[in-house]
Amino acid sequence: MSLSKIIWDDINTVIFDMDGTLLDLHFDHQVWSHLLPAKLAKKNDIDILSAKKIIEDLLEQNKKTLNWYSLTYWSKALGLSLAGVENELDSLICLRNGAQPLLERLNQSGLTLTLATNAALKSMNRKLEITGIRKYFHHICNAHEIGYCKEEMPFWTKLSKDTECKFENTILIDDNLDVLETARICGIKNTFGIARPNSHHEEKKSSEFYLIENLDDIKPNED
Ligand SMILES: [Mg+2]
Prior knowledge:
Blueprint: E1 13-16, H1 26-44, H2 48-61, H3 71-78, H4 82-88, H5 99-108, E2 112-117, H6 121-131, E3 139-142, H7 143-146, H8 153-163, E4 170-173, H9 177-185, E5 190-194, E6 210-212
Parallel strand pairs: 1-2, 1-4, 2-3, 4-5, 5-6
Helix pairs in contact: 1-2
Bound molecules: magnesium ion.
Magnesium ion binds at residues 17, 19-21, 174-176.
């Protein structure tokens, strides 16, 4: 479904993911693909490729679970402070083009805005402080507080109950296609991905989901 097919009169809630949807994924990519392997290589006295392999194997083992997103898990597994690594690069944390005007626009339209994120609480809070977008949200649903990640169905059951959200009147925008798939199974029909979550990478393609190229194209109640 494309953006122009949205019947805005039927929509009362927009759920946003944070990293790669509202925020540029460049920061997370630099943390996970560059600084973290470099720190691990130095600490364990191994080369960078071996360090990357250790991280990739653990990522694979923990795919679609809360651990994948948990700073505590990673700090323990690697013997490094993940929060410390994030601190070092926090000047790279920034909003994607069009994110702030979009949140502003949706707020003014009287829609309920919900942030649904798998990010660790510490990372989420840091990012919300730096970007100043917390004020736009009526609800903040964090996977670590809910107890399930967004790739798991109970996350959505709990979100719907906690925020009194009716999925037939809801739009979800998330750059993670596995998350969109789970949410769709749970009943959210209006699901959209993001074409370029990382401003330094190429556009993604999907045959399953419409990927938004430009956040400026989301315009409620404009006939
Ligand atoms: Mg994301």
